[in-house]
Amino acid sequence: MTLQQILFWSLRGSGLILLGMLLGRQKQKIPAKGMLLLWQAAILRLCLPGQIALPVPWMEADVSQRAQEGGQMQIWLWACGVFVAGMALAFRWQRGRRLLAKARPLSDASCRQWLGGGTKRKVKVMLCPGIRTPLAAGLLRPYILLPQDMDRQDKERLRFVITHEMVHIRRWDLWWKGLALLCRCLHWFNPLVWLLPALLEGDMERSCDEACLEHLGSGQKKRYALALWSLAQEQSAFWEGACGFGTSGLEERIGLIMNYKKISRVTIGLCALGVCAAAGVSAVALVPEKHGSYAMKVQGDQVVFEPVSGEETGSNIYFMEKTEEGFLLRMADN
After folding, report:
1. Which residue, among 63, 59, 76, has the nearest Cα to 1 in the 3D structure?
2. What is d(CA 16, CA 6) in angstroms, rounded to the nearest whole number?
3. Ranges of H-type helices in 48-172
4. pLDDT digits (tens, 9 = 90+) for 136-150
5. Is residue 163 pLDDT above 80, yes or no?
6. What is the rounded CA–CA span in Å between residue 295 and residue 313?
7. Are 171 and 273 in contact (CB under 8 A)?
8. Is 132 helix (H, G, I), strand (E, B) or coil?
9. Strand 294-299 vs strand 243-244: parallel, antiparallel, or unpaired?
């Protein structure tokens, strides 16, 4: 892979991010689940460098591009940036692992009841010192982390918290957030990609609120909003790969919760079709149509071009003849 290919790869993913930022202005009209699908498409596009070549017959080949690709441009600067960004992410991740080692299991019959269903993975509820808001963490072994000094006597609020974090775990949100952080390492030079984890998290929390209300019932909107307000703290920054109950955009989320209406399957289907179309456009690359290769042979005073065996060039043979006006290229009679 050349440096130019890396830049085009990053720009194609950036197109989906820009589209998401524009659509994000219409949060009252576009469901969070649809926005979440768009961010996931952007993540996959930024993780997968391949593209779908679409031959265009009227498009001319870019000779300068082929020459540049043949030059084997050095990409050591990009690789160094990936290494540095990856080491910084690993350092912050390790800090979170050390804090998780201090957590202790919470024995509560109600919590075990709320954990059931939706996933085959074993989920543990832990009391963790040093955090200010409930979090879901752990890629292979998921945990729900509660602040050690959290008031656990309010069973209704505790139920909302467990339900919210279980939605994150069932939808594999922790993995999607981890992939977004991986994109930031691979595309460390792209400022839009640095915004991707925060943009993903905002709509991830909004979508999680919608899923919780769908499960709890719209009659719980006010109580759920009050629970969110009472637990709202600034996101604990010790672990970027975690998903929290009280995160940024609190006032906007509460407004959307109070105006929540159940989303129809037709709306979700239209959102999915739109995301597929946008992702398809981002993955397609227009290339000149390949006409095949010809071998040149000299026969007397004629130059003969014959198609190379094994290539789809047809069976036409061309002759180049010298005339008084110059050279004439004609096709042989079949």
Report:
1. 76
2. 16
3. 63-70, 76-100, 109-115, 155-170
4. 888 888 888 888 888
5. yes
6. 12
7. no
8. coil
9. unpaired
